[in-house]
Amino acid sequence: MDGVAAGLSTLSRFRSSILDAYPLTTAKLWHRANPRTSQRRAVQAALGDGVRYALILGGNRSGKTEAGAMLSVAYALGRDHPAVKVWGKANRLDLSAIQEGPGVVCCSALTSNDSVRVQRPKVTTYLPAGTGWSNQYGHGEARARLPGGGTLIFKSNDQRARSFQGAEWDFWWCDEEHDQPVSNEGRVRLVDRSGRVVSTMTPLLGKSWVWERFVDEPEPGSVTVSLSSRDNPHIPVEYLDELLSRYGPHERAARERGVFTSLEGRVYEDWRHDLHVIPSHPIPESWPRYQGWDFGTRNPACVLWCALDTSDNTLHVYREVYRAGLTIRQLGERILRIEQCQGCGSAGCDTCDGTGRTEPAPEWRVADPAAKGERHSLAREHELRTVKARNQIRPGISSVAERLAPDANGNPHLLVHDCCRHLINEMEGYVWNVTRSKADGPDVPLKRNDHAMDALRYICFRLQRSEGGYASA
Hints:
alpha/beta, Rossmann fold, 7-stranded mixed β-sheet, 15 helices, 17% strand
């Protein structure tokens, strides 16, 4: 009997040492039955068959970051590692999506400081004993090498897209909302290994490109799940209430439930989707046209077409081009294809009566004043001549706001046709930069997802000044 007891004691110590060496084996994903949210169901969805991009939305302290850290270590170890098998069985996970042997994992935060302060400590919680680090506590990139060969690389969104080039990963964990160019570049790094990406975030930027790509019109191979802070059994409700009491109802929804919403501090407070968005319809030939350009290559370029109903001075935004990755030549060619009659060859053309255009030419095209080279290229290569916009931000915003505000009869003087969905999305997520201190100067909008906002501002400000006698630039 003493021998049996001694053997059991030895086995217990052995199991204890294994658990100490591989903390992932004791990691438990919290779970609430439907209709409440579940950290376990979120990870199950992220590991689902055919999923290439998983978006885990969550409020503050909902456990989304913990889930990202567990997945990162599991991918670094590989699905055939005993610790990963124990973790998977305990949490009812299908591990077939994880590669067999040790993997290469990228963990990226918004900034290097966020990586040092939040992401690396979370991952360290689940790393096995004997993990070797390079630059664990320093700013810039860091690397963790696991016993057995797995590797985790720590990067940050503020390194920009170029720094993500030239790598190959099995798994990418993005913590919080990354810029679209960074996301696009990072996903290319997963192609050779048939990897997948999990993005964990609290949607504090409103209906951004993430909402558009993965919620509004989900791309194939993507899945989106949400976690509510109130469902996390490890967070005291009184603590959560105290935390959320500082915010208004819209931001509270984002911080508690991971809801995409228009936050407090919207730049255009008079904007109402039900009032300002109308069904797209043909524009009368007699209405004067105007056009606004905001250039971009990695970031989207935006061109807006507007027409003015002179009977009541209402500006209609009736068409947009909103694309990233186009050169100036390609953008110019795209605009010409829209405006020029493709079948016109004689005065007898049935489409355009021989004018060579599908609609009247804009009276002016106003463009980003900082893009001198792009403006000259458009004029030289495509005969698309632009005038330089006045780029005073606050007066420009005021010119848009004045048109959005309903008049005495309750009618606004800026209407957006429903085909301009990028403009609509930007309008509903366009907020002031609340992190900017008063000492930095006047309040300005958050410089993110604002390409259509800039183009619209150029048009409205020039039109306002033209009505007041502003000469052409």
